[in-house]
Amino acid sequence: MAFLHYLTYVSQLFLRILLASQAIFIDRQPPPDQLPLFENPSVRVPRETPSPPPLPPDDKSSITLRGDENSRVRSAVEQWHVFIPGPNLERLVNQHVREILAYDLKIEPARVEHYAQIISQHAPRLFAILVEAKKGDNIIQILDEHIRDKDLPFIKIPSSEGLPLTLVTKRGAPINTFKTWEPQALENLEVKQHRALSPVFCRHEHYQLGVKDILPFIPNDAESNSWPKVAGGFGEVYPVRIHRDHHQFGTDDLPVAVKRMFYASNFTLEQKAYLDLGPSAHPYIIDLLFTYEYRNNLHLVFLWADGTLLEYWQMNPIPVITPAFFTWTIQQMTGIASGLAYLHEFKDPRTGEPRFGRHGDIKAQNILRFPSWLGPGILKIADLGLARVHGKDSRSNVDPKSVRCSPTYSPPDTLRGCRISRKFDIWSLGAMLLDWISYSLLGYRAIAEFSALRLRGSPSVFPEFRQDTFYTANGEMVNPHVVAWVDKLKRLPHCSQMMHDILDLIMKRMILIVPEMRSSARDITQHLEQILARAQEDQEYLAGPNPLPKLPPIPMRTSCAAELRTSQATRTREPWSTPKSRTWQV
């Protein structure tokens, strides 16, 4: 009878742990990694979730569950994948372990404290696993074999000729206690142990997870359930939430973006770029939280954003032009330029050595927007899948044939055979800023109009081969429609002096054919900081009326080569000519 009472008591204890810790029940549907290829998760039919049983009362006089109630609860639990939040489990085990050791296992009083400390400090999960498997009375024998939480998970060794099925520690050490167990009990323990072994994620760690491991992900709220997967050339991104007890990034459930990579090589390159930058490298660069491998898929995990800069433009097609909007715009432009400057030149957080990076794909789709007190939010540079980080000796020695990028915002450097350097990003940033100002002054439809004009400047016998670029087809001039568009923007009545200065910065220091003549990201940042400082002091400069008269656009045939400043003051060139460029880069 005492033993039966013990089994009832420990079963009830496990139920308390399961319920009081708000154990998360996750449907048996496959995880995001294993969804059918063409399934749309946003239209998945919701399943009916059974209600959990009520929490048992805390009164010790009524701690015994009826057998049929216990069976019903266990039967319901068996229908779900369950993970038990680790810290809650540990706290509850600590509260009850001494009582169980003394009154149910009849451990001598002098030894109760000894085993209680071992369980509390080194084996709370092991104890909970044994309780759920109805083998809690074996805890002392297993502890005496020096088995602890660090030896979990137990690994199944299948039976072979003359040898029964058994379990060993994760390092392969045998466990004598299991030799007396029935095979079914061993199978039960091997499966259920993973409910108490979900990982706790830490910054910049990599986790190698087994097939039977249970991720501590919980259902998203109603709004985030409608978020679709986003697929690209290298991977797909989907949202999940990490239980508050299974991450070290705050005290609440954490919404994150999980990026499942299609190829291991792309995973390695992107992971390396973030690790080279270090944790929380810059407030305008997204931080990689951690990575993991699960079911033969590699994953990168980031904080979940409200969307991209492009999506913000699409959701707000007609911006409300106010001083506050202009202030937010120049603040975020300055921040993005500052983040790019940091990526271009920083110190290795591990060695202190100078490092030089290049993003390689600056565009509005790769700028993420996070909620903030600052207007529509704070923007961060993301997607370092094409980024490269080099040491001093190799920073400017990239073969243009090896570069992959988005054609619209990329410079003509690859077409012209220039060695690829950090100046590649300056052109892309300038092109994106030009789209940004177009949106700020004319709305989202202006971006499509501007794109259509650039296509006209890309003559081709076959229209389908036209390129939406900011340069001409031969790569020797800035697209004339870009120059005309800038002139159009300058003559808008609500284009303030601040916007004029940003447009001049773009055309005179960023969108230049010859890479050497583009300013550095640090120089661009300094100019934007000066513009921002003046805008914060002078409301007329920030959002005042257009300082230019409304005149027809000036015919222009200049290329960005006309902006070149040579050291020979007397040397002149035709504005549409292109000088011979050197192949070394700054």
UniProtKB/TrEMBL annotation:
Residues 36-63, 563-586 are annotated as: Disordered. InterPro entries: Kinase-like_dom_sf, Prot_kinase_dom. The keyword Calcium does not apply. Keywords: Signal. It holds the Pfam family Pkinase. CDD domains: PKc. The keyword Signal applies. PROSITE patterns: PROTEIN_KINASE_DOM. It comes from the Eukaryota. SUPFAM superfamilies: Protein kinase-like (PK-like). Residues 223-532 form the Protein kinase domain. Residues 1-23 form the signal peptide. This is Kinase-like domain-containing protein. It comes from Aspergillus keveii.
